[in-house]
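Q: Convert this sequence to structure tokens.
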Amino acid sequence: MKSVRRSAPFLASGPLTFLAIYLLTASTLFALAFSLLVLAFTYVIVKSRSGKLELEIASSWPEVIDHLISGIQSGMSLTEALTELSVRGPEVMRPLFTAFKRQIIEDGDFDRAITNLSEKFGSHASDQIFQALLISKSLGGSQLLTILRTLGNFLRQDLALRNEIAVKQSWIKNSAHLSSAAPWLLLLLLAMQPTTVAAFTTPTGAGILLLGLSLTALAYIWMSYLSRLPSVPRVFGANK
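A:
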């Protein structure tokens, strides 16, 4: 079911674009070229939505730490404070903390449940938080609250810095989108004239169209690479 849901945008955008462009230009070559472009942009949009989810999770870790500190200060055990996050934690994280709570109820193995939770989140922030909790649980550390506060301040500063850089670099992504789309929009307008369609149906015209598609893809990939922020490597977990 998930695979069908993920492929639905591609199954819809490709054929619909092909049909629309063919009706406008009566050219199979143009319809195919623009279908490939739309499929590529659909992939970019789907990927950006996934990136927004990861960003939302990363932005929620300071709130998780605040909930843990509040729960521990109110007299909860570490396990209780973590399981409470399935109800009171950030909404985007509740399903994973619900799975953690279920595993704790089933086998009571705190270490394995925390390790599984860390792998599911798969980020440097989750590794740091959960490793601190594991060490505190095993050694009975009395400095857990201090460690959590320090870690919370560090994560907030890191998020603020990354957000500032992301805002400054967003113009690169916008330039990539505009630079990639503008020539093809102009070509689409010209393609409504029979002479343009006739010119591109020749072997030379088809080669130019293919070259344009290739250069557009390369330019967009390069611009996206320049605007990408490096991810912080995981120290305690496997990099994926």
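The mean pLDDT is 81.
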